[in-house]
Amino acid sequence: MAKTVLKNILQILIILIFNNFLAQKTPEKLPKNAVNDTISKKDTIVVKKEALEDILRTKADDQRRDVPKKMTFLNKNAQVKYQDMQIDADYISIDDNKNLIYARGKQDSLGKIIEPVITTQAGKKYETNEFSYNTKTKQAIAYNARTEESEGVITAQKTKKYNDSVFAMRNADYTTDEYYIKKKDTASDYFMRASNIKLIKTKEKSQIVTGPIQMYIERVPTPLILPFAILPFSDKRAAGILIPSFGEREDVGFFLNGLGYYQPIGEHFDLKVLADIYTKGSWNVRPQMNYLKKYRYSGTFTADVGTMVRGIKGLDDYSRNSTYRIAWTHTQDTKANPFLTFSASVDIVSTKFYNNNLNNNYIFNQNVLNTQQNSTVTITKRFLKLPVTITGTASYAQNFATGLADLRLPQMNVAINQFYLFKSKTGVRQGLLENITVNTGFNLTNFVSTQENELFTDAMWDKMQTGLKNNISLGTNTTVAKYFTFSLSANIDNALTTKTLKKYYDPVKNVDVEDIQKNVAGYSTFSSSASLQTTLYGMLKFKKGAAVEAVRHMMTPSLSFTYSPDFSSPGFGYYKNYYNAEGALTPYSIFEKGIVGSPSSGVVGALGFNIGNNIEMKVKSKSDSTGVKKIKIFESLNLSGNYNFAAKTHPWSVFSINGQSSFFNNKLSVNTSLSLEPYKIIFAPGATTGIRTEQFGHFSVQGFNVQLSYPLSSELFGEKTEYAKKYPAKGEVRNENYYFDDDNYAHFDQAWTLNINANYAYTKGLSALGNKIASVGLDGSIKLTPYWNINGSTHFDLVTKDLAYTRIGFSRDQRSFTINFNWVPFGQYKVYDFFIGIKANILSDALKYKDRSFTQPNAPF
Questions:
Q1: Dihedral pair phi/psi, residue 18, rounded to 5°
Q2: Distance between CA 373 and CA 304 in Å, rounded?
Q3: Is a pLDDT exceeding 60 seen at residue 720?
Q4: Are residues 603 and 691 in the same domain?
């Protein structure tokens, strides 16, 4: 034993001597002039760095430590906490040599993972089947990982974590299906699959960058494949691809409509570029820029440029047309500057834009039926201490039927606020004098009507007219005999213009000539009127217990007298005479073709009348808490006309009757108008135009119009069925309740709406044959199921027996996305359009289903 102890001591001494020898270091050579006792380096002790930077905490139902292999094994309810990471799994192994933590989910008897590994880091939770983490490099590899980001979830076959900011995924699916995210369903209703996905996370935002990515619906692949995708997980605006709709149009072929890209530009701008592509060669590009300055102004610039190709090149039906549309809207915040406001609504299109349109949205919303386009730019100046408002306007109107364009540039209006001519002596205005009000202002207009190809050319400037008008209006009123309101008014108009008209007969060409002359001329006119008005009430009560309790009639009669002199008399100089081609002396106004209008001709001393009526009745009603209900028979029924004492012929005017009413709880709206000719009209043999005689009392219908509007809905035909009481069996799909009868048929609310519009118009005048216009329009929707909706509209011409316009639409709410289908089967444009859009807000920016931008209400800014 003594030998063994001695032997061990000797071995230890040899090891210590050997280590001491290895630890010695050859001293460095000192410079020649160096002092011999200088110490070249201080002695230091190097502490070996620990493999772990923090404490590794573990727990499990069963723990085992393999010391030689430096391995730790955790089984059943295993948990590891390290720094900001926590791993929960059924099995975890820790390898100290490789600095590796491996976790696996719970397996069934066949080795299938039935409970995942849950890894939580920095507040984010990840679910995987298997998970490996290197504590030294902080890199990780996961298999069948499930990662939730914002409104979506990513499921990847293999995920590699390079650091806390970059994750690479292989064979990954991304979806925003709420039911799949909340694990209410084991399969998502849709997902987007990519072979490679990179998830990039920063403090401010996160995003997914993918290569080719394909959409799957109910696990079925669709032809919707994108070459790449960038999905941002942020509340801020972000760039993204705009998903198109696709379909077919009879005239231009198959199409992709609305394919494009969205790009925010700085803090105040964003840009959207859309393209429409058709298989027969047509194309269209639609850039749109939005801008917004919070609490100041907002606006949009839009262009629509394309080429329409119809038919086959070389054949007679081939055509190629270029179209354009330029639009600008600008709105100023009312709080920005109450004394200076600016607004613009500019919409300029080529003449044949709507006849050669490539944007299918114009077909579905019936813009292709437009016959006129208007543009206006307005600036208004108000003053703090002056009662004056100055408004400057530039307007442009296009008429597609005539091809003419009306331009007003510039137009200025100076309005002086209404004021009283006399002060009140007592503070309460009484009598005619104290109630006299004055309204006045000036209006300057530059106007031209010309062809589009003449705009801003010498020909347009030569046609330009300038006019200045001033109007002074005085009015007053007072109460007479308690029940009558007496009013007086006077109007004075002053006008100047730069062009006048001269008419004469040209014997060489044998035509009447209208010559526009460039000279300054003006006129002044005045008129006055007096009116008397009162209100009468009448009540007719029925016997007690009757269904109708009472009928109430309110009548508002009024009489007015208007006078104005004959401004066509030679003394004023506003009218001239010439001998026409037939040799007849014909009067005309030198202001006829001007923009300031012409003074009235002939003396007017007319007595006018108007009788307004309102008729209601009270009926018994069990549904009303008072026991009675008011029903409006006529909301308004007006009869008007006048008699001109100064007229030499036909002193009576045409009588007009206008009515408005509503029935069935104000659902059915009825508007009517009727024109009656009081004089007899006779027709010569074979003549189509009649002659108005002096025989009064032969009333004939000269015009009649009626408009009906009735919105129907399922709510009008009874209360909702109490399915819970009627059917005991209940089921639920996506929070929507279904109730089943004894035969297991499902029952649910099928809401529907149907708006009915009907119009009939008849005009005759002096014509022997009148013109009729009659049409019926339907517009409605019905929910076949809680998630299937059908909507559409149609208009039927009762005169021609043709369908004027018909559109049918289908939509399907598929949990996470919406499928829309629109079809126009008749008319000039026969088209169907199919679109799939994601509903999640996170993809509304990336894939732009909702086209969200900061000009819309809930967008961040």
A1: -65, -40
A2: 15
A3: no
A4: no
- Final residue of a structural domain among 611, 643, 675: 643
Q: Is residue 415 part of a domain?
A: no
- CATH of residue 77: 2.60.450.10
Beta strands 437-451 and 465-480, pairing class = antiparallel
Closest CA to 274 of 325, 233, 320: 325
Q: Which domain holds residue 211?
A: 57-236
What's the rounded Cα separation, in Å, for the pair 793 and 776? 11
- Among residues 187, 218, 236, the one where a domain terminates is 236
Q: Whole-model pTM?
A: 0.68
How many other C-beta atoms lie within 10 A of the C-beta of residue 357?
22
With vertex at residue 752, the alpha carbon angle to CA 746 and CA 758, rounded to the nearest 5 degrees, is: 155
Q: Is residue 439 part of a domain?
A: no
Residues forming beta bridges with residue 190, ordered by sequence position: 217
In this predicted model, what pLDDT tens digit does every residue of 587-636 receive, in sequence order? 999 998 888 989 998 899 999 999 999 999 888 877 666 778 888 888 89
Could you tell me if 630 and 616 are in contact, meaning their C-beta atoms sit under 8 angstroms apart? yes
Both tokens assigned to 846 = 């990336």
Cα–Cα distance measured from residue 325 to residue 276, given in angstroms and rounded to the nearest whole number: 15
Q: If you write DSSP's letter for every residue of 724-737 in order, what string do you get?
A: HHH--EEEEETTEE
DSSP type of residue 181:
H
724 and 804 in a single domain? The answer is yes
| Whether 654 contacts 675, CB under 8 Å | yes
Q: Two tokens at 65?
A: 């430590």
Phi, then psi, of 662 in degrees rounded to 5: -150, 145
Q: pLDDT tens digits for 756-812?
A: 999 999 998 888 888 888 999 999 998 887 788 899 988 888 888 888 778 899 888
Residue 550 half-sphere exposure toward CB, CA atoms < 13 A: 9
Are 439 and 470 contacting, i.e. CB atoms less than 8 angstroms apart?
no
Q: What is the separation of C-alpha 15 from the centre of its chain, rounded to a whole number of angstroms?
A: 88
Q: Is 18 helix (H, G, I), strand (E, B) or coil?
A: helix
Q: Give the closest residue to 230 by CA, choosing from 255, 205, 254.
A: 205
* First and final C-alpha spacing in the chain: 88
Q: Grade residue 22 by pLDDT with cuts at 50, 70 and 90.
A: very low
Task: Give the Cα separation of 139 and 100 in Å (integer).
Answer: 10
- Rounded to an integer, what distance in angstroms lies between the CA atom of residue 57 and that of residue 86? 9
Tell me the longest C-alpha to C-alpha distance in the chain.
Answer: 161
Question: Helix, strand or coil for residue 579?
Answer: strand
Task: Please give the DSSP secondary-structure letter assigned to residue 457.
Answer: S
d(CA 426, CA 409): 48
Q: Which helix (H) or strand (E) holds 803?
A: strand 802-814
Contacts of 677 (CB under 8 A, 6+ apart): 654, 692, 698, 699, 700, 701, 702
